Structure formats: structure tokens, C-alpha cells
Amino acid sequence: MSSLSKIRVNKMDRVHEVLKSNAKHKEKVSLIVALSKNHPKMINEIFHLLQTGTEVERGTIAEVLKFISKDNPKILIKYIDVLIHYIDYKAPRVKWGIPESIGNLAKEYPDIAAKAIPKLLGNTADESTVIRWCAAYALTEIALYNPTTHKQLIPLFQQFIENEQNNGVRNVYTKAMKKIS
Fold it and tell me: What is the pLDDT of residue 168?
């Protein structure tokens, strides 16, 4: 029997209860994502934990938000300012998940996602390859779906292609430039 099946999900603080369980990380993420689909009001609890949780909890919540934004961007859009605030948060796992969430929102909400560009640009210089990749993903998704950002972003993408040392990060920009052209 999975440790998750023992978790009571009818309590007010469901997300926190899942995070405190002995379940494996992937199980926790999957359950919270599933619970948020069945209980959209849990999004408030998720964002409360992003703002008040431990560093580990915030990282897990950022990962959860990445998956929620992929499946149901509509329920996150009213929290765009909170997401933008956490783009450059000190914990690396938050810096990974939040930009991906914004990139996922860009397809449906390109103008709103574009508000994140200044903070995302800050993450392009991070020493972590994963953080740079996530920033590249978000920026290129914004550019793909929001043509008004091309004047600002295309010259930067060209610089990133020339200067980025990591092939994976550089390829994100290269593929986007091919699609934009």
C-alpha cells in the first residue's frame, strides 16, 4: 500500500499534509497536482506554501506549479505577479520550476507572461545550467507567442546563442529563432 493512500485528503491543509508525509518526492508532486485538478480552491493553499513554506516545500511547490501550468494555465493566471516575484528566488528548485510555469502560461496568456521578461533575463546569467535553461524556455515561449516582444528578445537570443557555453541552453534559443523566422 502506497504511503500516499494513508493521507487524508479531506482536511483543510491537504497540500501541507502531503508534503509532510513519508511519500517519495515524485509521489508528493503527482498527488498535489491531482488534488489541485479535483479541488481548484487548493491553488490558494499551494501559493500560501510557496510564500511561507520551508525551502524544500517551496521547491516542491514550484515543481507542482510547473505541471499545473501545463495542464490548466487558467487557474494560475491570477497569480502571475506571485510567480514573477519568485523567478529569482534564492532556492534553485524554485528558480527552475517558476520560469517553466511562466513559459507554460505564455501560450495562452502571452501578454501577461511578458511581464516576467525582466526577471527572466536576470536568470540567464545564473551559474546553474538548469536555471539558465529554464529562463531560456520561458523567454522563448514568450517570444513564440507574443510577437510584440521580438524587437526586445531576438537580439538577446542572438547574443545568447553566440555566448552560451552549454549546448542544451543554446539549442533552446536556436530552435526558437528558427520557429520565429
Answer: 98
Contact between 134 and 170 under an 8 Å Cβ cutoff? The reply is no
Give the model's confidence band at 10: pLDDT under 50 very low, under 70 low, under 90 confident, else very high: very low
- What integer is the mean pLDDT of 105-129? 97
Q: Which of 94, 173, 85 is nearest to 136 (CA)?
A: 173
For residues 50 and 63, give the distance between their C-alpha atoms in angstroms, rounded to a whole number. Answer: 11
Question: Domain 3-180 carries which CATH code?
Answer: 1.25.10.10
Residues sharing a CB contact under 8 Å with residue 124, sequence separation 6 or more, in sequence order: 132, 135, 136, 139, 156, 160
Q: What is the pTM of this model?
A: 0.90
- Would you list the domain boundaries of the chain? 3-180
